[in-house]
Amino acid sequence: MLPNREGQRVPEVTFRTREGDQWVNVTTNDLFNGKTVVVFALPGAFTPTCSSTHLPGYNELAPLFRECGVDDILCISVNDAFVMNEWGKTQQAQNVRLIPDGNGEFTAGMGMLVVDFSPS
Predict the structure, then answer these.
(1) Which one from 31, 42, 50, 110 is the annotated catalytic residue?
(2) Coil vs helix vs strand at 76
(3) pLDDT tens string for the chain (120 positions)?
């Protein structure tokens, strides 16, 4: 079981995102400081369960979260910005902000990065 990290700060990371045709750096301070944020992470964009259940569920529940004082809903995955943006479009996930953790820095800082280099 993972340790309880309640009350601990998230790792300070800069995410490389794309808005239109421009690169935009977004920091964890930009995303979290002074806000109430729901964060969920996924193993990958376009994966079956993430596409059929996880992302749509948070997208649908967004109004309820907002009623409870949540400022933003973030979905983080170890994918690049291009993949996350396209997945968001296909999912019509306008209520969830998709954050690419392309190099896994945030995920590693949270103690959640799984890397297996063993031969198959």
Answers:
(1) 50
(2) strand
(3) 677 777 888 999 999 999 999 999 999 999 999 999 999 999 889 999 999 999 999 999 999 999 999 999 999 999 999 999 999 999 999 999 999 999 999 999 998 888 776 776
